[in-house]
Amino acid sequence: MAELFQGPDGQPRCKWCGGAPEFLAYHDNEWGFPVRDDQHLFEKICLESFQSGLSWRTILTKRENFRQAFKQFDFYQVAEFTEQDVERLLQDAGIVRHRGKIEAAINNAKRAVEMVAQEGSLADFFWQYEPQTIVNAPQTVSTSEESIALSKALKKRGWKFVGPTTVYAFMQAMGLINDHSEGCIIRQTVEQTSK
C-alpha cells in the first residue's frame, strides 16, 4: 500500500496532499471527483497545459488569477481573444507568462467551440475515454492507454499542449480515473460519487 498522509482530522489521505497547505482542500473537495461541466473541464485542461514543466502548487496558487485573465475559462469568450489579448496576458504577473501556452489556451478554446458543435459537449467527448478497467495501482503511472488515445484524438483536432502526461493528469483530476491511494478516506467518497 502506498504511503499515506494523516490529515488534521487524523484520517489517512494521499501522501501528496500533505506537501503544501493549498493541497488539502483541493484533494478533499476537487481532485478525482467526476466533472461533466464543460467550462470546468476546459479550465482544467488549460491549467494542466500551463503546469507542464512546473509544479501544480504554482498553478493552484495562481488559479484565481488565471480565471480572471481567461474570463472564468468561458471558452466561447476565450476563442475571441486576439493578439492584443496575448500581449496583455504576457504582462500579467498573476499567471504563467509563456507565449506558447497562452496561445495554446486561445487555440484550444476555438477547438472546444468546434468540439461542442460536433460532439454536443466537451464532457461527451472526454468521457468516452474513461477506462473500463484500471490496471495500475493508484498514482504509479503518468500515462495510460486511454490518455495516449485521448491526447492523439485532441491533437488530431488541432489542440495544443495536450501530451499524454498532461492528459493523464487531467483525467485524474476530473474523475475519469479514481487515482486516490488505497486507504485514502476520499477514495471511497469519489467511488460513491461516480456511481
Provide a quick synopsis of the model.
A two-stranded antiparallel ribbon has the order 1-2.
Task: Explain this structure.
The relative contact order is 0.18. Strands 1-2 form a two-stranded antiparallel ribbon. The chain has a single domain, classed as Endonuclease III, domain 1. A hairpin with a 5-residue loop joins strand 1 and strand 2. It has 11 helices and 2 strands, in the order ββααααααααααα. It is mostly helical.
Topology:
Blueprint: E1 4-6, E2 12-14, H1 23-29, H2 38-51, H3 56-61, H4 63-69, H5 75-78, H6 83-90, H7 99-119, H8 122-126, H9 145-156, H10 164-173, H11 185-194
Antiparallel strand pairs: 1-2
Helix pairs in contact: 2-7, 2-10, 9-10
- The helical percent reads 40-55%
Give Rg in angstroms.
17 Å
CATH architecture: Orthogonal Bundle
Question: Whole-number average pLDDT?
Answer: 95
For the largest beta-sheet, the strand count, sense and barrel status come to: 2 strands, antiparallel
How are helices and strands ordered from N to C? EEHHHHHHHHHHH
CATH superfamily: Hypothetical protein, domain 2
SS elements, strand count: 2
Low-confidence stretches: none
Classified by CATH, the class is Mainly Alpha
Strands across the major sheet, in which order? 1-2
Secondary-structure content class: mainly alpha
Index terms:
195 residues, mainly alpha, Endonuclease III, domain 1, 11 helices, 53% helix, globular, DNA_glycosylase, DNA-3-methyladenine glycosylase activity, zinc, DNA-3mA_glycosylase
